[in-house]
Amino acid sequence: MIWYSVMPLDPAGLLQGETAAVTSREIRVEGILMEVEPMAEDQAKIVRLLDCGLQDYLNPRYSPGAMIRYIPTVENEAKG
Question: Would the pTM of this model clear 0.85, i.e. be above it?
């Protein structure tokens, strides 16, 4: 069987018949929207870039697998 997907098969658990657990987050760092996977309390690993300029793909700081500082916050959406 041939399986075409943009998502890797191992983390999705598609080969083993498991349900995929979503642990990645979309965040914006310095104007670049990226998908990251939280690793530790204040670190995350870049999975892929989602919205950025072409020159940002060549920046080794934003390459997939690179570690960045990530501190999750809760934003208050209530106004008033």
Answer: no
